[in-house]
Amino acid sequence: MASDICVTHMNKHGESIPLAQCLTHWAREYDARVALVNESGERLSYSELQAWAERLAGGLYAAGLRSGDHAMTQMPNTIGFFVVFFALLRLGAIPVMAMPNQREQDINALMELARPAAYFIADHIGEYDCLALAARMKERHDCLRLVVVDGTTADDLPGALSLEQIKGAPCPQVEIHAGDTALLLLSGGTTGTPKMIARTHGDYFYNFTASADLCGFSGDTVYLAVLPAAHNFALACPGALGTFRCGGTVVATTSASCDEAMPLIEREGVTHVALVPPLAKLWVEGREWENSDLSSLKLVQVGGARLEAGLAMQLIDTLGCQLQQVFGMAEGLLCYTRLDDPLEAVIHTQGRPLSPEDEIRIVDDEDKEVEDGQVGQLLARGPYTIRGYYRAPVQNASSFTSDGFYRSGDLVRREASGNLTVEGRIKEQINRSGEKISAAEVEVALSALHGVHAAVVVGAPDNLLGERICAFIKPGGQAIDPSKIKSALREHGLSDYKVPDQIETITEWPLTAARKIDKRRLVSIAVQRTSGSLAAKPLPYQQVLLPIRSAPFDLAVKLAHRIEADNYVLYEHQGEWALGLDCAMEIAVDTDGTVRRSDGKFWQATSTSEGIEQALADLPFEDWRAYGRADFEFAYLMYGVENAVHPGPLLKIMIPRREIRIRENSVQLRALSAGDLARLKNALDEADAGQLPEQGASIRIDVRSAGREHYQQLVASAVAQMQARLYQKVILSHAVDIPVALDMVASYRAGRQSNTPARSFLLKDGEFQAYGFSPEIVVTVDAKGNVTTQPLAGTRSLTGNRDIDQQLRRELESDVKEIAEHAVSVKLAFQEMSAVCREESVCVDEFMNVLERGSVQHLASHVTGVLAAGASAWTAFENLFPAVTASGIPKKEALESINRHEGRKRGLYSGCVLIADSDGALDATLVLRSAYRNGDHYWLQAGAGLVPHSTPQREWEETCEKLTSVGPYLYALKE
After folding, report:
1. Taking the CB of the first residue and of the last residue of the chain, which one, N or C, has fewer CB atoms within 10 A?
2. Is 153 a domain residue?
3. Is residue 645 part of a domain?
4. Contact by Cβ (8 Å): 762, 748
5. Where residue 472 sits, what CATH number does that domain have?
6. Does 437 fall in a domain?
7. GO MF terms on file (predicted)?
8. What is the domain extent for residue 511?
9. Strands, DSSP E only, in 854-909?
């Protein structure tokens, strides 16, 4: 693959420099100039960057890494990323450039292919804990000898080394040739696990050197690396490497959001930035409220996908700088609009090839070249374009011609100027009854319609048509009516055969690791949703409404005691006791986010909430109610925290075979069969006429008898961390074992009589049982989309003595610690509600009231809102779980603290019990003030909300106060 052109364009002095020696050469030439800046303002000169990379290379050599070894890097845009990259090149090791957002399935496949000797990771990427992934990779892959962590938590992974600590004497110089592999990039395709692209020292140096010359980079360039630097676009088109080559400054950021990236532009005087079209659109929209000074910007590059002309003009007008379109691929070929191209070309085309030696052919289905102005598939060959993927002979046979041209899969048209216009992808042509339809054409037509924020079109397999046209639409603030969309498309002149056969609404796009829309996943979703709509007619519940004599609560207890069932949930809410019995269908969420249904179907959606929605969407029952529970560790999945304590499932939802709903004076019986309904009626008659179950011996336990010193040590540790500003609030819990077998029904009855909960529940799932008196809800959503959450924070006991209780209440309402704890909880709830509700609808309609809950009194507030377009009850649930009362603030850091300090499975404690209805309503209650049984083990558990002002003694007292909401009302199981 080496070529003379790779040598003649080495650098401005005409010298040939392998990538392994680049940084040394640049440090000698640019010395004290600032090479690299991060978000916090930390700066490294060229000499400092080179010295650190040299020390790291020596340390890695001492640790056993050698020239030719593969080393996978999976790091965000930090100083550490660039130090690792240059150190590996200096050592002669080959970086394997994994994307920061790739997860276990992709990383595992890439490990199998690349066989890396080392794995470089950050301790976390956003909310995702990378250490657990690295530990699993090390277990599975014998080749992985070394794991290096950029962060402060390397000790949490046995055998891992900290990037900051690795240093050594200079490693030996290695002989490197222009044609040797320098690094392995990943393909940015829209389907499947990315393929590996071996780029050589010669071709890759040319890639960023010639690009920097063409794009006008210089020593004055300040380049904002906002896209992942592991991606070819941000790394070398011209990217960070092109900037370094000219002596400019790279500003590395881990966030692409306007409110973080744009202030960086102002602070550092950024001149150049590269974006992809979706991010460009967000930046245009963001300027409506973000007012940083962007006058330093000279050039914004946009690539990765076709940029629509309208957005191109908006970008120029909004950012006030020059636009350059970039069309390229990690496999090699790069096309740029030129800086002196007319505006029309910049807006409407994607540029022309970088090198005069690039060869392109535009061909039809038979590989015959088409005339200029006609659309065909782009084939490319040139001095920096690969001739085959790494270890992929089957793929290479279809992706490369016999004479070495790369089949890009892109459909392009060559203009008279020589510039290319990208019309789509070959795989984005839909073959519907023999008609070839461009997905891009239908997408453009859809995007022009009122109420359509964005649209993506795919071809889904169809028994009659071969492929049907499926359009996924992200709404623009209003509900999508498929019939109206189809009519509007016809009115706008779209041919009938191009009108989508299937139209689906979607809230978030599934993305590949390269942050492109995953069309393969969209096809899968289209098939699943259609399968649901074509399923057999759902089975209705048979039901009857009957009068009762017993009080609703008494009847619920009698039924729970009498009815034999392996699985049941009794849920008290809003004056109703609902009892779901036996499982007709179960939905479970695994630790990796996979949603599984007991009929064998499973979903791996872009979010867990979407997977649950899909699993519920085609249930074979009419007018169902689901009963479920989410263990606390479900939050670990949501926030990417390592879960070494809970093997799953993390959430379980049961669609009952039989159901009883009890209200004052009446009961509704529901069952899927006439026989079950008859048996329910017999059980109801016996229970209504019968007596309440006798109680066994009362169990007396001293909740203060053990664990005080250990708990107070945990509190002191967490308070110290909060005082160091690692997080603002955390809830740590204390468990108390019950030494004898507990009568769960009798204890639930006694405890409920002495508590005044927001909700109560009693459940059984095989050997696991629990009951509780929930002080607050996690979230409720009604069928109209009205959402409520109820943060509680701040506690005092209730003694039963009116004067003492009033004094305690006054203390509660004036205690600075309790008020601060409550205020930050309400603020977080407001922020979380705002993420799923219409912005103008979110409000705090009750603030800092005092609620009495059994033996304790709390500060309580209500936050309400209305679901935003495209959001569902499960979106709200996912966003609000766990309740801030159960975790802390910020939730990610609080969850990590709980994981560190408690070191054991919480399970249902501080999780939730819920019911959900087929009309979209959902009611989820927080599990506190509860008792638990698993086999022969019975226990209570409670905790306290800690803030920086907390004291170990006070939090121990608060925890014991909460345990007394349950502890005095325990009864032994009668023999």
Report:
1. C
2. yes
3. no
4. yes
5. 3.30.300.30
6. yes
7. acid-thiol ligase activity; isochorismate synthase activity; oxo-acid-lyase activity
8. 433-522
9. 856-866, 888-889
Mean pLDDT, the chain, whole residue set: 89
Work out the pLDDT band at 2, boundaries 50, 70, 90.
very low
- Report the distance separating Cα 789 and Cα 780, nearest Å: 7
- Return the amino acid letter for 203: D
* In contact, 176 and 92? CB cutoff 8 Å: yes
Alpha-carbon dihedral 413, 414, 416, 418, rounded to 10 degrees: 150
User: Per the structure, how many domains does the chain have?
Assistant: 3
Q: What is the pLDDT of residues 20-68, one digit of tens each?
A: 999 999 999 999 999 999 999 999 999 999 999 999 999 999 999 999 9
Instruction: Give the CATH number of the domain where residue 193 resides.
Output: 3.40.50.980
For tokens 């022309």, name the residue: 352
Nearest to 758 by CA among 669, 676, 853, 861: 853
Question: How many whole angstroms separate alpha carbon 71 and alpha carbon 411?
Answer: 35
Average pLDDT over residues 813-839: 79
According to DSSP, the β-strands at 625-630 and 912-917 are antiparallel
- What are the DSSP calls for 429-477, one per residue? EEEETTEEEEHHHHHHHHHTSTTEEEEEEEEEEETTTEEEEEEEEEESS
Domain end residue (candidates: 476, 500, 522): 522
Of 414, 301, 405, residue with least CA distance to 358: 405
Domain holding 877: CATH number? 3.60.120.10
pLDDT at residue 820 in the model:
66
Length of the chain: 975
Q: CA-CA distance, 497 to 695, in Å (whole number)? A: 72
Summarize pLDDT for 946-958 with one digit per residue, the tens: 989 899 999 999 8
Contact 109, 193 (CB under 8 A): yes
Whose tokens are 């046979």? That residue is: 397
Q: For residue range 213-258, what is the model confidence (pLDDT) as tens digits?
A: 999 999 999 999 999 999 999 999 999 999 999 999 999 999 888 9
- Specify the pTM: 0.53
Residue type (1 letter), 757: P
Domain termination residue (choose one: 207, 231, 250): 207
Coil, strand, or helix at residue 958?
Answer: helix
Neighbours of 915 (CB within 10 A): 22
Rg over alpha carbons for the chain, rounded to the nearest Å, is: 31
